[in-house]
């Protein structure tokens, strides 16, 4: 085994660039300052009317030019900004990345105002169904049609950054961002490429999305104090807060990074995944799929459970998910879990859905780089059934050499990543 290969003889995968956009701001600098200050980006929704909605708060990204142009346009801008920061930060050509692109994004669909506009342009003398078909055929030749296609965002990003090969678009619910990273890692490990661009982006905090998640009783309804609504692992948690964001990582074989003198920000050491076929939204009560995903990631990294210093939790703030995550972590780590630092960025930025796994991977890298663990804010009423050190309310200085980042999604999607500060 050379210094550039891991315990299984595969190329070691380095992280050489990162980019981040959330409701806390654009770029690594602003986001890291806010996260370590324990500042929330959750606020009342102003983008669309919220009359008669149970939830009227969100972590929307309202400061971008495309914030009022629909989910597709905003998702693209979030992805483009994060990827540009990551690629330039890796000292690579932002117009000629020369590697494959893997994008985690929400299923693209037309917003209601676009659907109604489509309907209004149809021939009103025709029956309703024929009228809509005719309008759809007409708009197949327009930007509206392209914007509604699942792979269109990745295609545009591929052209923008000069990616190689067919860009991959994936949607594995809340695990999507971690899955995109895993696909990039595996492409490098198989020797198919020396670098890959993994992106998670989601600008789909629409009225329709809010209604859908409300019907599942998944969202917090604590609207009076938006900044206090997301409270992972607290006894008075009542649901997650819908949010938007984008994150990108440049993944590169360690050999390639060394050869061009790139700064290595961290090592993507291991990936683990496990499907959960129990329910469309609920996790299996015994936590076995999540347990298996955590163990698989640690084993893939060639590490022992005792070598994990910190867990960047999925930590959604829903009653059931937080309980299940505690069960899975306590099963894997045993009594050590009570003293092991575990925090949730979602307490500050909300749940960025398709982007979450990538956002939290970037924050995990920053945690190792700076030796600072961002807190879990709003932890005022501990849950006696969940005994965890959640780094409550205030950041913590700590030497962190390894991180486990969890992503447990609706539909049974579970993906975990292990990152280290050093190759060994």
Automatic annotation (TrEMBL):
Pathway assignment: Lipid metabolism; fatty acid biosynthesis
Keywords: Transferase
Domain Ketosynthase family 3 (KS3): 10-421
GO function terms (MF aspect): 3-oxoacyl-[acyl-carrier-protein] synthase activity
Keyword field contains Transferase: yes
Pfam family, one: ketoacyl-synt
A cellular-component GO term for this protein: cytosol
InterPro entries: Beta-ketoacyl_synthase, Ketoacyl_synth_AS, Ketoacyl_synth_C, Ketoacyl_synth_N, PKS_Beta-ketoAc_synthase_dom, Thiolase-like
Source taxon at top rank: Bacteria
The keyword Transferase appears for this protein: yes
GO biological process: fatty acid biosynthetic process
Record-stated family: Belongs to the thiolase-like superfamily. Beta-ketoacyl-ACP synthases family.
The protein, known as: 3-oxoacyl-[acyl-carrier-protein] synthase II
